[in-house]
Amino acid sequence: MTSRIFPESFVWGSATAAYQIEGAAREDGRGPSIWDTYSHTPGRTYNGDTGDVAADHYHRWSQDLDHVAELGLGAYRFSISWPRVQPGGAGRFNQAGLDFYSRLVDGLLERGVRPVATMYHWDLPQELEDAGGWPVRETALRFEEYAAGIVAALGDRVHTWTTLNEPWCSAYLGYASGVHAPGRTEPAAALAAVHHLNLAHGLAGRVVRELAPTAELSVTLNLHVIRPESDSPADADAVRRIDALANRSFLGPMLGGAYPADLLADTASVTDWSFVRDGDEKVAGVPLDVLGVNYYSSTLVRAWDGQSARSDADGHGASAHSPWVGADDVDFLPQPGPHTAMGWNIDPAALTGLLLRLRQEYPGQPLMITENGAAFDDVVSADGRVHDERRVDYLRRHIAAIADAREQGADVRGYFVWSLLDNFEWGYGYDRRFGIIRVDYDTQERTWKDSAHWYRRLVETGRLDQLPG
Ligand code: FCB
Fold first, then answer.
1. Pick the catalytic residue: 22, 281, 371, 425?
2. Beta bridge partners of 114
3. Model pTM?
């Protein structure tokens, strides 16, 4: 008993996203999304890779769900492609698209796996971007209509509805730094996108409450753990500012019903936030059954004195387009290794700290790790297997960090490994592999990596200490 670290009730799952795995980009009435446009624009993605074919999951979904079942998982987190089910982002729904997700959901239920559906994992219908995208309010209203369509179709067969995946990326990478679709570099627009994503979340959350009252409601945030270089007041202020942009711009309205005053003050030279209308923050504060947390690595900052050389270790120099709107005087510092193939540092203790912070600030709010995992340069060995011991080590250390947080009272109810399959890693294309199952992109063959075998054993036993290696 004592060595069983996770209880039976703890939910083990894996996560994917539509554009990263489905392919079939022009089939059965699917419309274009901002990621189709962006990935087909020369110079935007590594090697010019696109999601046109990806892991061909649209055709191979049934065998992919067999892998989920063979892993013994209790839940599977996937996303619904908005342009597949409502091609123009408004009005008519595409029955063939709805039917695909209906089969997927039924396929999960038949295998005894909980469907966890994300409504928006970054693939905005291109027509909505052409009409202004997330910086305009209308997009949030369109999202409400889309949510009503998919919840009416799939309803309470979906166990958990997640409105948005990582709105931080949608807003700041999509509209400020431009390294994600739609690739715009307009700081004020990025903050307007933050708000309309918060509003969209609340509107869609209300839809779930009305149309699927027995389903659980959640949102997934990529919360940042930010540490200061020193204990100087200036560095503490740098942490506060990045925390406001990265975390509290979403946690504030979603869990507290209001934007933090310091965020509005810090960004006053960029925007007056007049796009926030009376009542919006209350809408965004729809109560959540579970808060989804995505965690990969941590962040180290210092106040920049305006003279010394900058590190800009997050890859965005002060002169380049930074996602950190209004915070040009914060410098991002390199972190000690080892790093993953993304160049991200490995810092499981920061995950424990993050979960304990959430426990303290939002007591009683159940939590779920909706993504965690690592890209490494996998090698297929002579025996045909992928001995990805660094990924196993990464997963083990982070799951142990979650166990630590649980022991200290954090109400973490589940864990979803990113990702079930190797897939299209956004701007990095197919070059970065996060799967516990390898995809051979020439043949679409799936091969369990050692991490998949390891994960199955963990799911079976609920204990980390019994596992070899
Ligand atoms: C997260 C995304 C997910 C994947 C991982 C590596 O930011 O939600 O789609 O790209 O990072």
1. 371
2. 75
3. 0.98
